[in-house]
Amino acid sequence: MKLLGKIIVTLALLAFTANLALAIEGGNPKKGKYLFKKNCKVCHEDGAAGGKITPLSKTMKQWDRFFDKKKHDPAAWKDINDKQLKDINQFLFNHAKDSDQPQTCG
Ligand code: HEC
Question: Which position has the higher pLDDT, 76 or 104?
Fold first, then answer.
């Protein structure tokens, strides 16, 4: 019985970890970096209309919330599809200020 318990706990943990990995790998960060440069930087460079934004502008959690809730002026995002936003979200998340690899620039 003890062993069975351990097996069940291990399986549950494995399933949980697999889910986490999926959530984290939702977007393609390489594409996201390219898309961020192409679509976001026009308005988010030093002195631009939206002010300077880099992955360091937010924490991982804040980036996810920002994209989940689409807290942006939709007009500025109208030419960017959901898949691309997911990639950008992933890039910003991976290099957020509290991430393993904080990065200033996209
Ligand atoms: C057409 C111009 C434009 C484009 C393109 C644009 N933004 Fe913005 N963004 C703005 C403006 C304007 C604001 C508001 C700045 C303010 O409130 O002072 C803003 C605000 C923001 C903020 C700050 C909101 C906050 O929580 O403080 C973030 C983050 C942001 N944009 C991210 C992005 C990302 C990511 C992209 C690309 C997917 C993008 N923006 C594309 C104009 C743009």
Answer: 76
Domain boundaries, the chain: 28-94
Which one, of 101, 57, 75, lies nearest residue 66 by Cα? 57
pLDDT at 14 over 90: no
Q: With a 6 A CB cut-off, is 59 part of the ligand 1 pocket?
A: no
Q: Residue 79: CB partners within 8 Å, gap ≥ 6?
A: 39
Which atom of ligand 1 approaches the CA of 58 most closely? 29
CATH topology for the 28-94 domain: Cytochrome Bc1 Complex; Chain D, domain 2 (1.10.760)
Q: The whole model's pTM is what?
A: 0.81
**Does the beta carbon of 50 sit less than 6 angstroms from any atom of ligand 1?**
yes
Reported as type and span, the H/E element at residue 37 is: none
What pLDDT, on the 0 to 100 scale, is given for residue 21? 52
